[in-house]
Amino acid sequence: MGRGRREGGGLELLRGAEAIGLAALMSGVEAYFGYPITPSSEIMEFMASEQGDPRFPRYRAFVQASSEVEAVNMLMGAGAAGHLAMTATSGPGLSLMAEGISYSVGTELPFLIVDVNRGGPGLGNVEPEQSDYAFVTKSLGHGGSRAIVLAPQGVEEAMEHVNRGFRLAFEYRIPVVILTDAIIVHMRETIRIPAIKEVRPRELEWTARGRMGGARHLLTSMYLEPHEMRSHKEALMTKWRRIETEVRSFECIMCDDADTLLIAYGVAARKARGAVADLRKHGIRLGLFRPVILNPFPWEELESAAEGREVVVVEMSEGQLHEDVSARLGPLVKSVAVPGGEIVDVEEALA
To answer: ω before 226 within 30° of 0 (cis)?
Structure first.
């Protein structure tokens, strides 16, 4: 890096892509497998530049795969062997990875994916959008597969989420997605470097280590007999219920006296936070509920915060989060939805 290894607590001006990569290195990432796609390529570029750096001895493998399909299969192999591995991609690339992610959910393989959301569907554009929400939270792959989804609102929190993502992936043996966008990855912020500790998974008895020795383990998502498939899927469902109980995270900002509650995540939450502060100066009592983790979603906490208040969902998509919130809280929930890659102007929308 040419700047030495950062220690937690210091102030630095960092670009989001560099911060995400640095957090992975500080966490002890061992392998990066990916295929370049705008607007995520800067993360891959940074990770390529750090290959072989003696300051990060655990980081031993960087591979530019021939496609996202190949990259996700490399992630599966690393996860099966108990190694910390990650990739970064964007919507079209994530779609190509979906089959492998489903296999990994079924096989219970841990790894980290940074999704840098761009405009869609199709090729769309490379501007920031939040239109991958339904994809990553509802069924990231076939067969009802689900992953844990973290949603940082800025550069410093993105660093924290990388470390947290690796820990969650190995604790629950599940793929973890960090849902970002072009703003978070490309902007520069002066941040306090989080105190990140290396992730060293302890319970790896299940891994397939090959010639490294130990017992032979068969890792599979295939169960041809219906009763075996049912038993396996019930075990996955039980694990997900435990994740729903243990992993939820949110912020409730100025909610106590709010007449209107805004609901937003990621960059939209940053804009909403500013609107809350500005409009309160004019006597308009707004609050903000921000899910820090999108999947599992903190529904019970949202229901409590929204009780007796007007509710407005703010998002940079066609209204995917609003659809979920309306299904939970009722049809009176309002929507400020701005798709296409434009930055939502909350104050203007509420005027």
So the answer is: no
Q: Residue 178: which pLDDT band, with cuts at 50, 70 and 90? A: very high
Q: 229 is written with which tokens?
A: 């498939």
**E-state strands within 84-213:** 85-89, 111-119, 125-128, 148-150, 175-181, 188-192
For 240-253, the pLDDT digits (tens) are: 999 999 999 999 99
pTM over 0.90: yes
Distance CA 317, CA 167 (A): 30
Report pLDDT digits (tens) over 290-320. 999 999 999 999 999 999 999 999 999 999 9
- Look up tokens 């041809």; give the residue: 224
Please state, in angstroms and rounded to a whole number, the distance separating the CA atoms of residues 68 and 107.
19
Pairing status of strand 334-337 against strand 310-315: parallel
Q: Residues with Cβ < 8 Å from 26, sequence gap 6 or more?
A: 5, 6, 163, 196, 198
Q: Which amino acid is at 73?
A: N
CA pair distance 314, 337, nearest whole angstrom: 6
CA-closest candidate to residue 264, choices 296, 288, 300, 297: 288
- Give the model's pLDDT for residue 344: 87
Beta strand pairing status for 111-119 and 125-128? antiparallel
Q: How far apart are CA 270 and CA 180, in angstroms?
A: 13
Domains, the chain, in order of start with CATH, read: 11-192 (3.40.50.970), 251-350 (3.40.50.920)
